[in-house]
Design brief:
The protein is of the alpha+beta class and 149 residues long. The protein has 3 helices and 10 strands, in the order ββαββααββββββ.
Length: 149
Amino acid sequence: MACRGIPAGTVLKTLFLNAVILCSLCVQLSAAEPESYCLIATCKNEDAVAEIYAPQRACYAGTDAFFESIRTSQRGYYALDLNAAGKGKPLEPVNLKAAAGNKGVQVDQFTRGLPAATIPAEGGTVSFDNRFAQNMVCTPLFKTGTVPD
């Protein structure tokens, strides 16, 4: 059986392929919800301001729950505000992990191959990189306006 000289196998393959394409267009795939982030620390020096963001799902359950959620590495973001230097405010992904004994948060800037910097839970001086983010004074964790209890 053929349609106008086209072999039946070719017609069936074409119909099947069209059906698959039509079904894939009709099925609405649930798009991944974009994740929200909360500011957990702000660090400043004379050249710049750095902000560290953690997943919101980890932020609002309390400090103990926060450290439990980042016991294994979690994706967060690091923003380095260089507007004063005319360079803007880049946002880069980082890996966040609880420091030993929940004494702070390790910030791993893996996209730039820098060693992880640890922000002490009670705040302190941290160096993220050697150009603009050296000797930054950081707030205690969650003392930036988004405080979990």
